[in-house]
Amino acid sequence: MQGHDVSLQARARERQRELIEELNHRVKNNLAVIQGIARQTFRSLPGADKASAAFVGRLHAMAAAHEILASQDWEPVALGQLAVKVIGRSSARDEISRITLDGPDVFIPAQMTGSLALILNELATNAVLHGALGREGRVALTWSSDSAGGASRLLFEWVETGCRHAATPVGPAGVGTMLLRNLLPSGAEPPELEFRADGFRYRAAFLIG
């Protein structure tokens, strides 16, 4: 009887692995199709090059999150690992050398990984186009965790320096700003976006378990 139970468990695990592989394959295909449709759609719109690049960049961030999750069977993802992969896709080699990452081993639940990947992509892309990385400045990404009401809370901060022309945007918020404000998990503290004299600062805090 015990041998029979072990056999059933082995078949169940194999079936689960096959289903995960099929899901991964379909997600990757869907992302590729969406990217192709986006490129063709934006190509037909005059002056939409920047919008196309921003949209495809966000898709790449989602793909990076999916690749990590798929490689470790949809288990929680190390924030440092996610940051390196997403920022690496958003920045050139010289720009990456001006980014420092510092924080303990903190793991992000699978269901939050996509949102955090998009936030990291927005921060890195904006730093390249409008902030410190486009003006020979530097970026420090730091994080820590503490306990809030018995649950683990992530404290996450992105600080740009050496960007003398930083200024608070005037007019309606753009898509990137709305993503930075609204992609945090339900119940998160309102994020802080601060445009300072020498650069930009983004701070967020939310529960991760």
TrEMBL record:
The keyword Chloroplast does not apply. Pfam families: HWE_HK (PF07536). Its EC number is 2.7.13.3. It catalyses: ATP + protein L-histidine = ADP + protein N-phospho-L-histidine. Residues 22-105 form the Signal transduction histidine kinase HWE region domain. GO terms for molecular function: protein histidine kinase activity. Gene3D superfamilies: Histidine kinase-like ATPase, C-terminal domain, PAS domain. Coiled coil: none annotated. The keyword Transmembrane helix does not apply. This is histidine kinase.
